[in-house]
């Protein structure tokens, strides 16, 4: 029995999260379009991008949007054109929810660059709610052996981190630097370690440094500190442009820095000799393709990933984002909804 109304958080006017721009509302349960599923949310991960949407670092795409794009839930109704899902399926909804399928990027297997791409919890209402709709072709089946709360962070933190690791071009057995150690980084470190990498973590939080070492990192130091070895590759997870120069300096010749975030504060000027010469590269990471998601979820099915992080109730979503903003969350936070 699907109720008529539900609880859902809405961003009234984007503003610093401690001024309470989010409001918990009672709103109608959405009706799925012909190609969509209606999903009862069980857990929704809390991602830094939700903070960017809430605080206005990302421009408003849908007024009063419901954030949340790491959704694990159960299919409760289907549009009449959907043949790939069934009521009762446990599924995941991630950030990317639409691409055109026809542009040069889509046709080249680079749908993450599609100019008509749309995103859950930004262009359409997301999972900080009891229900959401999602296009069936962007709904994922999930690996077994994980709880709902463990699966949720895999859907953005995991997938984007996985793409970032690929973009960082880490050679087999290589030395990887990770700058910032939140939800995405703690998953990506485990993927890299499972693939044989030597991982060095640079992060501001004492908690996060301890977690990094527990997960198998070879070293953990302060956010801008020099790692003990030259790095083949690095990933910048912290949304802090000031960390680009030290990360570039820490790279070995020919090394690559991938910047994982959707938002980064300004990068200070770089010195060509110190930061770029010797064929060092900087790359951004833009969203992900469905192929990345399927590849990563299959990887998570083969290699157990330990997901750590605090659990909040749905009505505590604003507090979860305040904690994320304050840097006081170790691992990946989730909202327990249903
Ligand atoms: Zn396209
Ligand atoms: Zn995210």
TrEMBL record:
EC number(s) on file: 1.1.1.1
SUPFAM superfamilies attached to this UniProt entry: GroES-like, NAD(P)-binding Rossmann-fold domains
Cofactor(s) needed: Zn(2+)
Domain Enoyl reductase (ER): 18-335
GO CC annotation terms, alphabetical: cytoplasm
Keywords: Metal-binding, NAD, Oxidoreductase, Zinc
Organism: Mycolicibacterium diernhoferi
Cross-referenced InterPro entries: ADH-like_N, ADH_Zn_CS, ADH_Zn_typ-2, ER, GroES-like_sf, NAD(P)-bd_dom_sf
Reactions catalysed according to its record: a secondary alcohol + NAD(+) = a ketone + NADH + H(+); a primary alcohol + NAD(+) = an aldehyde + NADH + H(+)
Similarity comment: family membership: Belongs to the zinc-containing alcohol dehydrogenase family.
Identification of the protein by name: Probable alcohol dehydrogenase AdhA
PROSITE patterns xref list: ADH_ZINC
An example Gene Ontology molecular-function term: alcohol dehydrogenase (NAD+) activity
């Amino acid at each position: 029995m699907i109720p008529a109304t539900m609880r859902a958080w809405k961003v009234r006017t984007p503003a610093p999260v401690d001024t309470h721009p989010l409001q918990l509302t009672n709103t109608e349960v959405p009706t799925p379009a012909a190609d969509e599923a209606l999903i009862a949310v069980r857990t929704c991960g809390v991602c830094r991008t939700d903070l960017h949407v809430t605080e206005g670092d990302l421009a408003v795409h849908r007024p009063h949007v419901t954030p949340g794009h790491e959704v694990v839930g159960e299919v409760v109704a289907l549009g009449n054109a959907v043949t790939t899902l069934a009521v009762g399926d446990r599924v995941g909804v991630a950030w990317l929810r639409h691409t055109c399928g026809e542009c040069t990027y889509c046709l080249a297997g680079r749908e993450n660059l599609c100019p008509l791409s749309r995103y859950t919890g930004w262009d359409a209402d997301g999972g900080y709610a009891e229900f959401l709709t999602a296009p069936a072709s962007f709904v994922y089946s999930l690996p077994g052996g994980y709880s709902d709360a463990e699966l949720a962070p895999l859907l953005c933190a995991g997938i984007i981190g996985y793409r970032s690791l690929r973009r960082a071009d880490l050679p087999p057995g290589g030395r990887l630097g990770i700058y910032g150690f939140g939800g995405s980084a703690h998953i990506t470190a485990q993927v890299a370690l499972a693939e044989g990498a030597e991982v060095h973590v640079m992060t501001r939080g004492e908690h996060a440094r301890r977690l990094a070492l527990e997960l198998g990192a070879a070293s953990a130091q302060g956010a801008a500190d020099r790692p003990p070895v030259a790095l083949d590759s690095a990933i910048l997870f912290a949304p802090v442009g000031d960390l680009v120069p030290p990360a570039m300096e820490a790279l070995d010749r020919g090394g690559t820095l991938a910047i994982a975030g959707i938002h980064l504060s300004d990068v200070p000027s770089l010195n060509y000799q110190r930061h770029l010469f010797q064929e060092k590269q900087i790359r951004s990471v833009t969203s992900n393709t469905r192929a990345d998601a399927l590849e990563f979820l299959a990887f998570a099915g083969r290699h157990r990933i330990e997901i750590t992080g605090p659990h909040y109730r749905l009505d505590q979503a604003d507090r979860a984002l305040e904690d994320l903003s304050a840097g006081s969350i170790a691992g990946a936070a989730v909202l327990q909804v249903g």
